[in-house]
Amino acid sequence: MAEKRVGSVVEQDKTGKGKQAENKGHCATCHHPEPKGHGTMAVPPAYSDLGKSAKDIFCKGYGFGALKLDIKTKSQSGVEFATSGSSNTDTGKSGGHLETKYKLTDLGISFNQKWNSDNTLTTELTMEDQLAKGLKLGLDASFVPNTGKKSAKLKTGYKRDYINVGCDLAFDMDGPTVHAAAVLGYEGWLAGYQLAFDTAKSKLTQNNFALGYKAGDFQLHTNVNDGTEFGGSIYQKVNSNLETAVHLAWTAGSNNTRFGIGAKYQLDKDASLSAKVNNACLVGVGYTQTLRPGAKLTLSALIDGKNVNGGGHKVGMGFERRTDKKCEKKAMQDMNAEPSCDTTKMQ
């Protein structure tokens, strides 16, 4: 009898554990919302990136009055090369730059060198996430051989949940200048402040404030620069193919208000169409086509709506070529892919 009781208790214990496991598995797979907790907040963007989604609608996909060529490649050793050249169709002036970048991933160090057609040499050394998680340290130095002008900048940045701060110390012939910015984020709300202080003149040369809100596919951004420049923008992703944006800006003591509306429509996975118009009746149109993985062509035009027949319009063209293992692999996959056949559409 004692053995039967012990066996019954053990069996009940196993059954209880089994039910607990079943209940645990059921809770893990059920569709009930999890109880709200503290969770983690995404790191807010840097001050310069506030309102970036709306800025991209008005800036990317256009190149009025210029012919531009961008080429990027990466060697097997991990060295990245980038070269860019452009020519202004109005003045005929041309310019370009050559850039090399190398990363030591294990040490969190990146080394960047750049030379442009103005004969300016720039070197940048950056270390990230080594001394502390989220901490970024950098040193920039530039030199102009023709004039002998030299400058340097010490850069620091720290970003974690709810906060993104940065402080740069720029050195030149006139004396050091302090640039600092901070952005706080909480439940979609963003607040930022930016300043620049000239130590040689003991003067605050920049005093900017920004406030924004981000919720899913909607973004709102407002800013005040030096207490005289006011601006705002709204970004809305209507669906997976259409993005829209509106921006507004004005200056205190002036009746000149600047207003613009822009949109970007993804025609298919390889082509997109952009358009924008402002209160001066300047209409911009851009078309971007991915010719193959890593190769992109951009055509754009700016039309003066107030003087359509009088000329003064501008056109532009840009070509971007990027070659690395990912692009070459994607190109080979596209070349070797067999066309799909949907029998339901052939009847």
Automatic annotation (TrEMBL):
One of its GO terms (cellular component) is pore complex. Keywords: Acetylation, Ion transport, Isopeptide bond, Membrane, Mitochondrion, Mitochondrion outer membrane, NAD, Nucleotide-binding, Phosphoprotein, Porin, Transmembrane, Transmembrane beta strand, Transport, Ubl conjugation. Its main location: mitochondrion. It is found in: Mitochondrion outer membrane. Pfam families: Porin_3. It comes from Monopterus albus (Swamp eel). Interacts with ARMC12 in a TBC1D21-dependent manner. Interacts with MISFA. It catalyses: K(+)(in) = K(+)(out); chloride(in) = chloride(out). Non-selective voltage-gated ion channel that mediates the transport of anions and cations through the mitochondrion outer membrane and plasma membrane. Forms a high-conducting channel with a stable open state and a voltage-induced closure with a mild preference for anions over cations. Involved in male fertility and sperm mitochondrial sheath formation. GO terms for molecular function: nucleotide binding; porin activity; voltage-gated monoatomic anion channel activity. Residues 1-26 are annotated as: Disordered. This is Non-selective voltage-gated ion channel VDAC3. Belongs to the eukaryotic mitochondrial porin family.
